[in-house]
Amino acid sequence: MTTMAADAGAYEAVFDAALAADERIEPRDWMPDDYRASLVRQMAQHAHSEIIGMQPEANWITRAPSLRRKAILMAKVQDEAGHGLYLYSAAETLGTSRDELLDKLHSGRQKYSSIFNYPTLTWADMGAIGWLVDGAAITNQVPLCRCSYGPYARAMVRICKEESFHQRQGYELLLALSQGTEAQHAMAQDAVDRWWWPSLMMFGPPDDASAHSAQSMAWKIKRHSNDELRQRFVDICVPQAESLGLTLPDPDLRWNEERGHHDFGAIDWSEFHEVLRGNGPCNTQRISQRRRAHEEGAWVREAAAAYAAKHGEEQA
Amino acid sequence: MTAALALGDDALVLSHRLGEWAGHAPVLEEEVALANIALDLLGQARVLLSLAGDEDELAYLREERAFRNVQLVEQPNGDFAHTIARQLCFSTYQELLYERLARGGGPFAPLAAKAVKEVAYHRDHAEHWTLRLGDGTADSHERMRTALEALWRFTGELFEPVEGCEVEWDTLHADWLDRLTSVLKRATLEVPEGPRRGAWAAGAGRQGVHTESFGRMLAEMQHLHRSHPGATW
Amino acid sequence: MSGDRSGAWPLWEVFVRSRRGLSHTHAGSLHAPDAEMALRNARDLYTRRSEGVSIWVVPSTAVTASSPDEKDPFFEPSADKPYRHPTFYEIPEGVQHL
Question: From residue B24, how far is each of A22, A53, A54, A115, B31 by CA, in Å?
Fold first, then answer.
């Protein structure tokens, strides 16, 4: 097979042209090292978020107050494991193994979304997570279905399709509580009070302080700025909260006729950075549970590998 | 409806135990597999309990003594080998039972005909893991052997006739033992020799007598529902 | 976590036939110790909303891919054979069943 002699410059031109034409970059295409590294970082963080995100919700599976809710919650937590797998699978197309990524998660060298470092204290948190956390995630993720990297975009299409029920079930759950007994209503309001601000932080630091944003936008890994998406989310949530009969915990929240958007209060970025630094209420707990599951599962994975090695010929 | 409660409670309780694995499974692929099985069982439980009354009242408001599940399904998850051993013993039984119920044409035939396909997959999952753990490493073999020995004393109860299930329990038992013996042999494991049931005249799960961990499991499962009497969720 | 490496499971590519009459399409990948488990994991992961009627799994290492260098010689020749595509031909209006 003859290979065409082409220098890096020519490859880069092809890459740039593909981006400019809004075409997808595929695994075996040439791509700049930084683009590859940036993608791996983002996909890994996204995959880690899915699997760490199972924990706060799994916390309530055994206490779900009706069998219908229990089935929904189990299916949702299962989807999160599935979504983690789709994303690790997409990351592997760039030559980074899942084991390598999990090692980095377990040793703290790669992050997951800080939102999962908050605790789920009551059943209403299952509703608030579905409505606000999944709502924020969907606002972030829908544009990723058009991300420039093909495998990531395809994984996101699948994930967004499957996630459509996650947000709706959360909203329905909160509505049932809000319209239920006084104690249930109070439980719902308390959950919204605790999850509102952390959900707004999910869009990341303000645009002028975001380390990776500009380059990611240029590469079409990211399609909208953090502040733009945050504003979109606030505008969507305000009328939804009204229909729920619940209050969003922000005295400065009001419609701005001139901007055509809601103004909202200042976000406490010091909390965001503290949680990111490892000082959130559940950082240690989440990572140690994840590591324990992995370490305690080692003998199972080894047994299956040993069996496959022994019986490999019979199967082939 | 004694039978609807017995079969429904089996499915409900085992589903709950499998749900406890969420976030703790040995590998991500197995998170998805265990949840699939738990969801199938929960679906079966809801249909069966609804035949006997209101599913939530039955699940959340009965006292421990009113549950009719076999003790096998309430046994704690233990390590993955214990969970697989429990799955193997129960799903093999459940498949054989549902096959018969589906053929029998009684009140459970429609449910059994649908559920037997799900259960066949659960049994297949348990068998594949039994082979891999039994014939994997020395460590996994030992864990699987220990698990089978520990659970063996809860398997006798499976074949106690359930009122309302028109099946031949003796042949069901014989088929179960055949099937299990052949899988264990392929997995280089032996059929345990110990007793098949505990020596206590009070009976076991089908009579409403359960094991220590079951009360704690129910306390966790029922607490929230019971804290808000009459609330809807 | 030194035991990890010996327990590392290989990667498999998963192809799903979504319904009768369609070909198997690449759905993604997963890890499994062997082919039998790969099939089962694929069923649980990629068809849990009844998205498939048949599944293939292939060890990722068994896939031979054209490299980007080969892209042009591999795919350009066909680009100049528009007569292979039905839209190349002009058919008078009203002619049916073509």
Answer: 41, 13, 10, 20, 8
Chain C partners of A99 at a C-beta cutoff of 8 Å?
4-5, 8
State whether residue C45 sits within 8 Å of chain A by CB.
yes
For A64, the token pair is 């779900």
**Residue from C2, C13, C15, C30 to probe the interface with A (highest A Cβ count within 10 Å):** C30
Per-residue pLDDT at C81 exceeds 80: no
Class at the top of the CATH hierarchy for domain B2-227: mainly alpha
**Chain A residues within an 8 Å CB radius of C75:** none
ipTM computed for the complex: 0.96
Per-residue pLDDT averaged across C89-98, rounded?
75
- C6-66: CATH topology is Ubiquitin-like (UB roll) (3.10.20)
B62 torsion bin: left (phi>0), alpha (psi -120 to 50), beta (else): beta
Nearest-by-CA chain B residue for C41: B29
pTM for this model (two decimals): 0.92
Give yes or no for residue B151 having a pLDDT over 70: yes
Q: Taking 60 as the threshold, does the pLDDT of residue C55 lie above it?
A: yes
Measured CA to CA, the distance from residue B73 to residue B86 in angstroms comes to 7
Other chains touching A, judged by 3 or more CB pairs under 8 Å: B, C
Closest approach of A90 to chain C, Cα-based (Å): 8
Q: pLDDT-based confidence at B195, cuts 50/70/90?
A: confident
